[in-house]
Amino acid sequence: MSGTLNLQSRVAIVTGSSSGAGRAIALALASEGASVVCSDLIPELRPGGYETETAPTHEVITRTGKAIFKRADASLPQDVEALVAAAVAEFGRLDIMVNNAGIFCGQNRIADESVEAFDKTIAVNTRGPFLGMKYAIAQMMKQEPRPTGDRGWVVNISSIGGLVGLPMEPIDYAPDKIHVNGVCPGFLKTAMVRSALEDSALHKELHDALRGRIWDLRQMWERRSFSFVVMGQAG
Questions:
Q1: pLDDT of residue 27
Q2: Do 224 and 152 lie in a common domain?
Q3: Which PANTHER family match (predicted)?
Q4: pLDDT tens digits, one per residue of 99-138
Q5: What span, in angstroms and rounded, lies between the C-alpha atoms of 8 and 203?
């Protein structure tokens, strides 16, 4: 894609903007004219990065544009709600929400990993984007649309790891003769989905989308799929 984007008068929030990808995103948005609310736990760069400019992101932006820093823990609802409120208080509205904050905790084998490290990762990497969408979209719904008819844009920065399966545990524990598999059985008739199946319009949509393959539980064991996994026939 070539050319420039006109983001003049647009207001953006970028979480995790003090370093890395978040910093690059914030600077890119500012270079196109957006006012940027930079958010992170601290404004300073994270040690060990590859940035050559050492000034905090918002200070770099304010040399030629508009920006503020607002501290927020992306995993805490009160922080994210206050972050959105700060953007509106400073710049009048919110047009762009970039949920970028993410962490990488622990490199231990799963049996040795702490529950705290797992919980912290889920809190920031999964709960964080949920909170960002929740409060940003609530604000956008209250705003008058732009002349284009748009109320806002939400961008969730994820990882290729969410699209490509990496068999870490199966490989990690294969030498110990411990087999780790994942089972994705599809759409099953259970109490969890009864309300959807009893909604005639939704049932038809599901039936069409799944080409009629809505399994009952008997089909699952008749096909021996689960037994196949746990009786040594799968890797």
A1: 98
A2: no
A3: SHORT-CHAIN DEHYDROGENASE_REDUCTASE, SHORT-CHAIN DEHYDROGENASES/REDUCTASES FAMILY MEMBER
A4: 999 998 877 889 999 999 999 999 999 999 999 999 999 9
A5: 45
Task: Name the stretches of the chain with pLDDT < 70.
Answer: 1-4, 210-212, 219-235
Model pLDDT for residues 50-77, shown as the tens digit of each residue:
999 999 999 999 999 999 999 999 999 9
CA 74 to CA 130: how far, in whole Å? 10
Question: 162, 192, 215 — which closes off a domain?
Answer: 162
CA distances from 8 to 14, 33, 140, 144, 187 (A): 17, 4, 18, 17, 46
pTM reported for the whole predicted model: 0.85
Domain count, the chain: 2
Side chain identity at residue 26, one-letter code? A
Q: What is the CATH number of the domain that holds 49?
A: 3.40.50.720
**Residue 2 maps to a domain:** no
> DSSP of 2-44, one letter per residue?
-S----TT-EEEEET-SSHHHHHHHHHHHHTT-EEEEEES-SS
Write out the two tokens for 230: 């746990």
Placement of tokens 């008068």 in the chain:
9
The angle at the Cα of 214, spanning 210 to 219, to the nearest 5 degrees, equals 135
Residue 154 sits in the same domain as residue 217? no
The catalytically annotated residue of 130, 153, 173, 187 is 173
The encoded tokens of residue 57 equal: 């992101």
Helix (H) or strand (E) holding 125: none
